[in-house]
Write a structure and sequence with these properties.
Elements (H helix, E strand, L loop, with lengths): L3 H7 L13 E4 L3 E6 L2 E6 L12 H15 L7 E9 L2 E10 L7 H6 L5 H17 L4 H5 L3 H15 L9 H27 L3 E3 L9 E4 L2 E4 L7 H4 E3 H14 L3 H15 L4 H22 L8 H20 L6
Antiparallel strand pairs: 1-2, 2-3, 3-5, 4-5, 6-9, 7-8
Helix pairs in contact: 4-10, 6-7, 6-11, 9-10, 9-11, 11-12
């Protein structure tokens, strides 16, 4: 069962054994999250976008298990496991079960509410840099960072956003970003290949934005990594950190982004960052524009919410466009 009916069932507090006072529902393009304090249940939508395939119950179960396994690298204490969602003894779905985090302490909310401190940025970057230094790499992983393979990601982005020209992105912006991306590959494709050969393409997080980081006085949690496609997680470490930098800039805090980059540079000692970070930020902003555009096609998302998604997608595409002037 992958319909609004299942969402309705899981939105009812009485559905859960611990009987929470209320259930908050949050939807993304690929999942539905049910916040039933003190737990969170996350199911995967029965979608196939090409870059991910959750079309069968068996596949959704597998990727739930992968999500728990991979996220334990950075947040071992909050991922509790995978549970079958049953009704009258029949398994309807599988859910990732997590402890509820204090999302008011997410990096995004700390920034929006002007409660962000330099110490928060220091602690977050320290954790990410250490993770990147220790992350697994091998010949198979390195292949994904080679220009001929990474190009598949950007080609796919352009293919999947073409239908949104005139809705969330104008044709001039689309064409120029596509052309400049190709020019970057021609100019710096060899550099990307060399970085892969040096072991800088690793099994990363893949989705490092401000909503996926929670900072409390005694802990930093980084969660919700990419589990559905190794191609998006086997990336250059600079591509991983670029997501966070871009998202800070989306929240109008370029000062924080600059501070974070300098801290990261000191820990990683990466002499190529000034060349490749603008390109990877462009890529990351474009991905966010694509993701928000794809959600416009989801029949389970209310029209009022879709108007917000449309505006957000356009804002991300505009941010991507702004990075063109920083490309080397």
């Amino acid at each position: 069962m992958q319909t609004s009916e299942l969402i309705k069932i899981m939105s009812n507090p009485n559905f859960y054994p611990h009987k929470p006072k209320k259930v908050e529902v949050i939807q993304t393009h690929i999942s539905v999250v049910f916040i039933a304090d003190p737990l969170v249940y996350k199911i995967k939508k029965a979608v196939n976008f090409g870059f991910l395939d959750f079309s069968t119950l068996e596949k959704r179960k597998y990727f739930c298990e992968r999500e728990v396994q991979l996220n334990k690298r950075l947040s071992p204490d909050i991922y509790l496991g995978v549970e079958p969602i049953k009704l009258n003894g029949k398994i309807l779905e599988y859910a990732v079960v997590m402890k509820k985090l204090p999302m008011e302490r997410s990096l995004k909310n700390l920034i929006i509410n002007k409660k962000i401190a330099e110490s928060h940025i220091n602690r977050v970057i320290n954790k990410i840099a250490q993770f990147h230094l220790e992350a697994e790499t091998n010949e198979n992983i390195a292949i994904y960072g080679k220009t001929e393979n990474f190009r598949k990601n950007t080609d796919e982005n352009f293919q999947q956003t073409e239908e949104f020209i005139g809705t969330t992105i104008d044709k001039e912006t689309f064409d120029l970003i596509k052309r400049k991306t190709e020019e970057f590959y021609k100019k710096y494709g060899k550099l990307l290949d060399e970085r892969a050969d040096k072991g800088l393409v690793k099994d990363c997080h893949g989705d490092l934005h401000t909503e996926h980081i929670v900072v409390t006085p005694d802990k930093v949690w980084i969660f919700d990594c990419i589990e559905f496609n190794d191609r998006f997680r086997y990336i250059d470490i600079a591509c991983d950190i670029a997501f966070l930098l871009m998202d800070m800039e989306f929240l109008k805090r370029r000062d924080l982004s600059s501070k974070a980059l300098e801290l990261y540079r000191k820990q990683i000692q990466d002499e190529d960052l000034d060349i490749i970070i603008p390109f990877f930020k462009l890529y990351r902003a474009y991905v966010r524009g694509k993701v928000n555009s794809l959600m416009l096609k989801d029949p389970n998302i209310p029209e009022k919410e879709k108007e917000k998604l449309k505006n957000r997608a356009t804002s991300y595409f505009k941010l991507a466009f702004s990075y063109l002037e920083n490309l080397p």
